[in-house]
Amino acid sequence: MLDLTPTNVGLMLLASTGAGLIDAIVGGGGLIMVPSLFGLFPQAVPATLLGSNKVASISGTAWAAWQYARRVSLPSGRLTGAIVATLIGALAGAWLATQVPSRPFRLVLPVLLTLVWIYTLWRKDLGREHLPLWSARQEALLATVLGASIGFYDGLFGPGTGSFFVFALVRGLGWDFLHASAAAKRLNLAANAAALAWFIPNGHVVWALALPMAVANVLGSAIGTRLALKQGVGFVRSVFLVVVGALIVKTAWDAWHL
User: Fold this and answer.
1) What is the C-alpha to C-alpha distance for residues 80 and 3, in angstroms, rounded to an integer?
2) How many domains does the chain have?
3) Is 240 within 8 Å of 170 (Cβ atoms)?
4) How far apart are CA 61 and CA 190, in angstroms?
5) Per the domain annotation, does 223 fall within a domain?
6) 54 belongs to a structural domain
7) Which helix (H) or strand (E) covers residue 170, if one does?
8) d(C-alpha 68, C-alpha 81), whole Å
9) How crowded is the C-beta side of 53, counted as CA atoms within 13 Å?
10) Using CA atoms, how far apart are residues 207 and 11, in angstroms rounded to an integer?
11) Please, what sign has the CA dihedral across residues 23, 105, 253, 244?
12) CA distance 141 to 146
């Protein structure tokens, strides 16, 4: 059982609100939520903390996806295959995570994130305009491949998934950061659903904590989505660079302490 004192629950609600805000803009809410859970409940089973986190995360992501859908026009038909592929890829990755060690991924991840950060900073025009590179059929196929690949990574390891989705859609499809972030919410929703399909039946969710966190995450998501839609592409790009920079520091620290 978790030590659900008023102080611990209050701190987690604050963390969940902040995570929802960041996640709605460009992904990376796990930077706040996961360390907070592990720090406040050090004796808990890790899978239970991750499952409770996913309940909150999927709630905020669903809210953000709905808000973006009202204001940002996306080619929904072309994303259908990507959503299904993300779901299947995440399930496959989750299974493989039980068979292989995570150490190699922890060592490589900060290097990959650094390359993404440098490339985005170097290409100052990247993602500022929405200029799709491919035909409808090609775009649907490429989005499906991206969904399967990053979904698999999410199930297998996970950190930075939202940022990888955004970068892949910007660089691979030629979308701007706002459209990419809106689409990433739908893909993240599929990946989170795949994770919960395992966590919930196996009893790895503490609902007394997860449900209040979900409400807080939706609140943060509402604020973050509003900011992204109001401030536009340049703001989302700047937040992306900040979040990826924080991910580099966090994952490099983790890898060093292996």
Assistant:
1) 41
2) 1
3) no
4) 10
5) yes
6) yes
7) helix 161-173
8) 19
9) 24
10) 17
11) negative
12) 9
pTM metric for this prediction: 0.89
**CA–CA separation, 150 and 187 (whole Å):** 9
| Alpha helices, H only, 72-160 | 76-97, 103-122, 136-156
**Encoded tokens for 175:** 């979308």
Query: Using CA atoms, how far apart are residues 202 and 124, in angstroms rounded to an integer?
Result: 46
What are 46's two structure tokens? Answer: 């890790």
- Tracing tokens 């609600």 back to the chain, one arrives at 13
Domain residue limits at 89: 6-256
What distance in Å separates the CA atoms of residue 177 and residue 154, rounded to the nearest whole number?
Answer: 21
The token duo for 234 is 């340049």
Give the pLDDT confidence score for residue 124 in this predicted structure: 85
Cα distance between residue 117 and residue 110, in whole Å: 10
> Would 1 be classed as within a structural domain?
no
Residue pair 162/13 in contact (Cβ under 8 Å)? The answer is no
Q: Which of 190, 192, 186 is nearest to 68 (CA)?
A: 186
CA 187, distance to chain mean position in Å, is: 9
Token code pair at residue 79: 């994303």
Ranges of the chain whose pLDDT falls below 70: 1, 102, 258
Helix axes 233-256, 30-40, angle to 10 degrees: 40
Residue 104 lies in a domain: yes
Q: Output phi, psi for 43, to 5 deg.
A: -90, -5
- Written in H, E and C, the secondary structure of 157-206 is CCCCHHHHHHHHHHHHHCCCHHHHHHHHHHHHHHHHHHHHHHHCCCCCCC
Q: Name which of 196, 162, 147, 200 is nearest 19 in CA terms.
A: 162
- Residue among 162, 151, 171 at smallest CA distance from 89: 151
